[in-house]
Specification:
The protein is of the alpha/beta class and 527 residues long. It has 3 domains: 173 residues, Rossmann fold (3-Layer(aba) Sandwich), CATH 3.40.50.300; 119 residues, Fumarase C, Chain B, domain 1 (Orthogonal Bundle), CATH 1.10.275; 199 residues, Rossmann fold, CATH 3.40.50. Helix content is 43%, strand content 16%. The protein is built from 20 helices and 17 strands. The strands form 3 sheets. A 7-stranded parallel beta sheet has the order 13-14-12-15-16-11-17, with helices on both faces. Helix 3 crosses helix 4 and helix 10 runs antiparallel to helix 11. The longest helix has 24 residues. Bound molecules: iron/sulfur cluster. The site of iron/sulfur cluster (SF4) has 12 residues, from loops.
Amino acid sequence: MAEGLLTKIFYLTARTTTRKAAEDTFSLLVENGIAIKTVTITAKEKICFQENTICAKEQCEYSDGYYDRVNGAVLDVLSNENIIDRETIERYARKHRLCPFEYSLDLASISDAIICDYNYVFDPRVSLKRLMEEQKRRTVLLVDEAHNLVERARSMFSAELVKSVYLQLKRTYKDRDNEIFTLSKKLNQYFIDLKKRCESEKANRFTDVPRELIGLLKQFTDSTEEYLLSQSGESDQELLEAYFAAQNFTRIADLYDERFTVYTEISRNEVLIKIFCLDPSHLLTKIAKGFRSRIHFSATLNPLSYYVDMLGGEENDYSISIASPFSPEQTEVYIKQISTRFRDRESSKNEIIAMIRSLLSGRKGNYLVFFPSYQYMNMIYEDILLDSKFQTIIQTPAMTDEERDAFLAAFKRENDSVFVGFAVMGGIFSEGIDLKGDRLNGVIVVGVGMPQIGFERDIIKEYFVRQGKNGFDYAYVYPGMNKVLQSGGRLIRSEEDHGLIVLTDDRFLNKKYQAMLPENWRNFTII
Ligand code: SF4
């Protein structure tokens, strides 16, 4: 940047919690004399000042007169702040009575560094296209925790619709708006016919997006848009959501090629159709084209060739592996030779419980035990509870920010007894959390983290087999091992940390899995 080759940095993160690391780093640079302005973008629904996010100026005082006040607010913040994080945005937005989200976007267009979610660059629904086009060539993309981008991109480039939405709209708009009623009726009928066709042909996969559906959806979005614009006051949430879903589906349909598939899921009262992106690499490359460069980084890009392939890299792209800054002596590594395969879970349960008890009795401190699924975790947890020697806490699905903070706060320093947290791999506690020092003394990983065998995973597998690759590894093994490495990576967060890692599965002794373990986990003891 100092040499004038770059004017902008996008620091892209997978989750809110990891933005702090970027903000802290820029703060350090500022303290050491760099002249830079950074802004953090927080999702609209999170940062919105209103209880209901209805942005019409009649409904929101922060939207009404926004453009009269924004210039003063931009000058104010730029004259006083360098690191414009969420709290700073909120403070100045309140002071100048501005929508905090729009304000952050306006600041982004003139800041040197933007810290935001992946989707502001890669997601066709929300990307800041206009903002980026002008400065692309002099902008670098820094993709943090890039291993997450594979699955995130897959979901950004996929779209689905369900029949029940149109049935409901047909009922609601019968006496309200004839055009929306008629189109909802046609869409509902389309799904009924689709169901019959799938049942009679005994098929649920298509090689192309049904053009008839796209035609209907385009008519639906045009009419809905006209209707919504003609309405003053509160918009109908149901219709708005259907509008965005239809718009997204048609947008993704335009991207469709051999790297996608279309499938349906049919139950008694519901029909779902999904355009599913199998391989996001091509689109990631296409979107990133034109930027000065993009740099992906993560502690767990292993095997590197898989991530280079999936993130749209090429053979000759630069890659740098940096050795762990921590010494192997900081970690005692154990491998428990036992099967955690789905079919063996019931029979190996008691041995795993006995192992956890014997490993932790006689020790003190805080431990995390990670499982591949809630179901498996709950099965073991219920029996561990019978042992009153340990204090425990357990992760539940969809925890609020407060519940998440309480879970982490329970890991206290200088704990003289044994405290055990139960969590799932790939969840909010297996990545992006820092329990430094003796707040975490050990991690037990149960299983190799593989996603459950399922329909979508199997189509991914088939696709990569057709490409001449190891489909099973691409669909199951590599994503699974990434979760293992991330979970285990919670243990050592500084040069002062020490602790134990227990890898519980016989597959960790296989050559293939061994090759994916970090250097400092390779000196292990089999138990
Ligand atoms: S304009 Fe901003 S503050 Fe107002 S409702 Fe929309 S997002 Fe919320």
